């Protein structure tokens, strides 16, 4: 087998990373990847061996100070050979001096620490029956009906970089259904 060749993915290849992520049991988001690639077209990398996909990663640069890393996957039959570290290093180099966030896979946490990452939060998942809110005070509306500036301002409370281009693409992406919860004439939640 030849040397791992790392390059930027073409738009039609992003589905490889999405499919591999789904096969790993992750939830990559329905038609989300093209929205991210609009923000940073060079942020999706593929590693090839003999012209066949061997590894994927994304490192989307949102601003001059923040990037987000994901889709870090090596094809199962090629793991343990150093290909993951090579594509990882390429993604880190793409981020440059930015702070990098990532959703960490438990099995890789030690490797993240070796690269200087520190755990910021543990995921918390909830389940249960949701009681419908008082319809007099709450309405659910298409997210497109809410001014994008309000959505971006709310997003800025939970995301460390402005991402208006991503939000515009994500809200309007074919197949996406985006809704907002408006309570007392104020944006309360959206998704």
Structural class designation? alpha+beta
N- and C-termini, Cα separation: 45 Å
Largest β sheet strand count, sense and barrel closure: 5 strands, mixed
User: What does the average pLDDT come to?
Assistant: 89
Q: What pattern of helices and strands is seen along the backbone?
A: EHHEEEHEHEHHEE
**Number of distinct helices:** 6
Secondary-structure map with pairings?
Blueprint: E1 5-8, H1 14-23, H2 33-39, E2 44-49, E3 52-61, E4 66-74, H3 83-95, E5 99-102, H4 109-114, E6 138-142, H5 148-155, H6 164-172, E7 179-183, E8 186-190
Parallel strand pairs: 4-5
Antiparallel strand pairs: 1-2, 2-3, 3-4, 6-7, 7-8
Helix pairs in contact: 2-6
Give a description of the structure.
This protein has helices at 14-23, 33-39, 83-95, 109-114, 148-155, 164-172, and strands at residues 5-8, 44-49, 52-61, 66-74, 99-102, 138-142, 179-183, 186-190. It has 191 residues and is of the alpha+beta class. The model has no long low-confidence stretch (mean pLDDT 89). A hairpin with a 4-residue loop joins β3 (52-61) and β4 (66-74).
């Amino acid at each position: 087998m030849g040397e791992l060749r790392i390059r930027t993915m073409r738009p039609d290849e992003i589905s490889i990373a999405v499919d591999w992520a789904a096969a790993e049991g992750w939830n990559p988001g329905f038609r989300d990847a093209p929205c991210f690639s609009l923000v940073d077209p060079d942020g999706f990398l593929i590693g090839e061996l003999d012209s066949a996909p061997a590894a994927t990663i994304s490192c989307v640069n949102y601003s001059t100070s923040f990037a987000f890393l994901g889709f870090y996957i090596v094809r199962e039959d090629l793991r343990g050979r150093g290909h993951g570290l090579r594509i990882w290093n390429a993604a880190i180099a793409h981020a440059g001096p930015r702070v990098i966030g990532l959703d960490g896979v438990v099995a890789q946490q030690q490797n993240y620490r070796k690269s200087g990452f520190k755990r910021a939060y543990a995921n918390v998942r909830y389940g249960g029956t949701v009681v419908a809110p008082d319809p007099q005070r709450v309405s659910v509306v298409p997210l497109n009906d809410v001014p994008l500036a309000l959505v971006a301002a709310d997003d800025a409370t939970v995301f460390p970089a402005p991402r208006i281009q991503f939000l515009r693409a994500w809200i309007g992406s074919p197949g996406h259904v985006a809704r907002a919860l408006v309570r007392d004439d104020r944006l309360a939640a959206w998704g």
